[in-house]
Amino acid sequence: MTKDLPLRKIIHVDMDAFYASVEQLDNPELIGKPLAVGGGEKRGVVSAASYEARKFGVRSAMSGYMAKRNCPDLIFVPPRFARYKEISQKIRAIFYDYTDLVEPLSLDEAYLDVTVNKKGNPSASLLAKEIRERIYNELGLTASAGISINKFIAKVASDYNKPNGQKTVNPEEVLAFLEELEIRKFYGVGKVTAEKMYKVGIFTGLDLKNKSLEFLEKHFGKSGAYYYHVVRGIHNSPVKPNRIPKSVGAERTFNENLSSEIFMLERLENIANELERRLKKSKIAGKTITLKIKYSDFTLQTRSKTIPYFIADKDLILEIAKELLYQEKLENSVRLLGISLANLNTPDKKKPEQESISVQLKFMF
């Protein structure tokens, strides 16, 4: 029963094919054409794909070679992250006209808590529509939105009527919505977890709901409790205006595969320089250094080391990254290297959670 759930009015706004849409916005000749941001016919990985390209199976994280094979007419453009960030800041400025409770997840998506909002509008659905219209009228880009009682359901709903649409899941519709949902559409259930769920007879939200907490914890560990609760509409995490980063990193994909550690050291130094710049900009340091290695066959390996003190200096970071590189023999030639710093010294300033709204209030979604 949703009467037992804390009710908020949450909007999840997700820009439609954001990077690709910005490229088409700035270069009208690309409109209507299959477009990939990043990648290349021989090297690199696709960062984003236009909807025209997606029809051919082109997806983010796909190799440029495979993307071109799927779509021979595919156009590759280099990413312009400074431009994407510029547009993202304008989008967020629109969000802040409605509420200060904005939690950005990335440049192209964010949660908004509009339970109490600056417009005094009781309808979260109408607010979402107005926000999407403003983004289009002011910036020329389309966005989709999901609206519901918590972040989990709002995020799932935002994917329903893409592109340029929205879906509202009202309080009384929550449980039926989740029961009918295909398990692979649950946020947090990736391809590997979905396959694991299929093997134990979980294909829909209802199948998941029929499993006990003990069963889910046995098969999915700590995530079992999460799945048990979200399928019942229970996800009490508030919208957090100031999300504290868990890690900071930098990485590079190479034009040619590297087969010797000696050739990798120069690249690692450049990556360490970039990481130091990002750490200084955020005014943070960390204790856990992780070296990320992606081989030519796309298998991924990480090697980590935790030290007893916080660091942000590129020389110290590079020294530990070198140690991790030489820790064991490389399995194959390398196409990507990355360094990240975790266990950060970010201030753990817990903000008071937004008050749960009493179910007795007249909710107008």
TrEMBL record:
One GO term (biological process): SOS response
UmuC domain boundaries: 10-190
Keyword Transferase: yes
GO cellular component: cytosol
Primary localization: cytoplasm
NCBIfam families listed in its UniProt record: PRK02406.1 (NF002677), PRK14133.1 (NF010731)
Family named by the database record: Belongs to the DNA polymerase type-Y family.
Subunit structure, as described in the record: Monomer.
Protein name: DNA polymerase IV
